[in-house]
Write a structure and sequence with these properties.
Largest sheet: 11 strands, mixed
Strand order of the largest sheet: 1-3-2-4-6-5-10-11-9-7-8
Bound molecules: glutamine
Radius of gyration: 22 Å
Number of helices: 16
CATH topology: Amidase signature (AS) enzymes
Strand content: 5-15%
Helix content: 25-40%
Order of helices and strands: HHEHEHEHEHEEHEHHEHHHHEHHEEH
Low-confidence stretches: none
Number of strands: 11
Length: 476
């Protein structure tokens, strides 16, 4: 039977003729069919993936050297455009909409001979923390079907968690890769803002959105990051800072790490999560790393600032879905234009998306702009300044990824504020543009996994991945 450890081993097995790309794709199609109840995929490209696998097997047999992602089976979040395939952002609004071009991130994977096996379920327009806001229904956590997988990239996380693909793509605007990785017991990376082009990614909040990667090994994630990153003439915010690539850790390196007092002692933080992280801190100190508790008094402002700014950006980004330029059109016979728009949007958008559009419109309205939007921008500036200072002294910051482990389905859905507050540890990296990763180091006595979040200064993914690798290796 086909078995996957990491891309390097898979490529070794392919060149030794121990397996084929067809074997791999058939195996994953079978796994996906057996895990339908998890609702991780919104569409599976079975025939196409098999065809692509056959082509790659032929190429290899003819002696062509393997490209970097030869036959690597990847699932993508349903907000990334893949030419000729439906992309809906898990919204009724975009039902039936086909991508006219491929996102830069997707094209770069395809150029290295990756196989895209399907689209993954997510919260509508990537808004949510539990994957309960999808027009396709919610996704189940494969470890406990009564629990949420996290969100908004819940389907992509479960696709890796349940072994339905080798690696997957999500997006992270406020934690949507790190938090589901935390809830599912896998690795989830959010690169620096701008590291991966946003061209072809359906926008939620453009100054926060970033493509992220789920996987089971740091080396696989590093490889995908290397391939997708770099400047892009279609996205002026895409960073063009040298060619980035993973090099290995010197095992003897000692790190200078900080953690925020306000985070580890936060009243919302589960006691056991706190205890496990503090025990790890002690262990790392005994191994010669410097770990310092520092003050971060802005922590309580991050969630309000995040929700003011992202809803403002969302209200503008989502204005294009009016049923004429894009999206769902009502069947009602309405003659008046504003009424027509209103009905299209009322029918097309789900509750949470409507709530955010209204909130965003409110904070941008002339009477409240200064009190909310400008204020939140000022908070963001302070956060960036303080973060720069911290990274002048420390190489990394560690934090919990989420205050709790995966919660029960339905538990927070009727209380949006409680849901928003649970983003307290992840939105910081998006507000400041720094990279962050959640690594599965711990298991709670309630049976669910949880991770440690590591962050470094902007564009320092190398230190981030090396440190994550070290922490994971020690664990084994
Ligand atoms: N939970 C956050 C929100 O709902 C994060 C979403 C995301 O990162 N896409 O906005």
């Amino acid at each position: 039977m086909f078995q996957f450890r990491n891309i390097k081993h898979y490529h070794h097995d392919l060149t030794e003729n121990n397996t084929t790309c067809i074997d791999a794709v058939q195996y994953y199609l079978q796994q996906i069919a057996g895990a339908k109840n998890l609702n991780a995929f919104t569409e599976v490209f079975s025939d196409e993936a098999l065809q692509q696998a056959a082509i790659l097997d032929e190429k290899r047999k003819s002696g062509e050297p393997l490209k970097k992602l030869h036959g690597v089976v990847i699932a993508i979040k349903n907000v990334l455009c893949y030419k000729g395939h439906e992309v809906t952002a898990s919204s009724k609004m975009l039902k039936g909409f086909k991508s006219l071009y491929s996102a830069t991130a997707i094209q770069r994977l395809l150029d290295e001979d990756a196989i895209i096996i399907g689209n993954c379920n997510c919260d509508e327009f990537a808004m949510g923390s539990s994957n309960e806001n999808s027009a396709y229904g919610n996704v189940l956590n494969a470890l406990d079907n009564t629990k949420v997988p996290g969100g908004s990239s819940g389907g992509s996380a479960v696709a890796v968690q349940a072994g339905l693909c080798m690696v997957s793509l999500g997006t992270d605007t406020g934690g949507s890769v790190r938090q589901p990785a935390d809830f599912c017991g896998i690795i989830g990376l959010k690169p620096s803002y701008g590291r991966i082009s946003r061209y072809g990614l359906i926008a939620y909040a453009s100054s926060f959105d970033q493509v992220g990667i789920f996987g089971n090994s740091v080396s696989d994630i590093a490889l995908l990051l290397e391939i997708m990153s770099g400047g892009d003439e279609y996205d002026s915010t895409a960073l063009n800072v040298g060619k980035w690539s993973m090099s290995h850790n010197q095992a003897s390196k000692k790190y200078k790490i900080a953690y925020f007092k306000e985070a580890l002692h936060h009243p919302s933080l589960d006691k056991e999560i706190k205890k496990n992280i503090l025990t790890l801190v002690k262990k790392l100190r005994s191994e010669g790393h410097t770990i310092t508790e520092i003050d971060f008094d802005l922590l309580d402002y991050v969630v309000p600032a995040y929700y003011v700014l992202t809803t403002a950006e969302a209200s503008s980004n989502l204005s294009r879905y009016d049923g004429i330029r894009y999206g769902h059109q009502t069947k009602d016979n309405i003659k008046e234009l504003t009424e027509f728009y209103k009905q299209n949007r009322t029918e097309g958008f789900g509750k949470e998306v409507q709530r955010r559009i209204m909130l965003g419109t409110f904070v941008l309205s002339s009477g409240y702009y200064d009190a909310y939007f400008s204020k939140a921008q000022q908070v963001r500036r302070l956060l960036v300044d303080q973060t720069d200072k911290i990274f002048a002294d420390y190489e990394a910051v560690i934090m919990p990824t989420s205050p709790t482990t995966a919660f029960e389905i339905g538990n927070k859905n009727s209380d949006p504020v409680a849901m928003y507050l649970a983003d307290i540890f992840t939105v910081f990296a998006n507000l400041t543009g720094i990279p962050g990763i959640s690594i599965p180091l711990f298991k709670h006595s309630n049976g669910m996994p949880f991770g440690l979040q590591v962050m470094t200064k902007k564009t320092d993914e190398l230190t981030l991945l090396q440190l994550a690798d070290l922490l994971l290796e020690q664990q084994q």
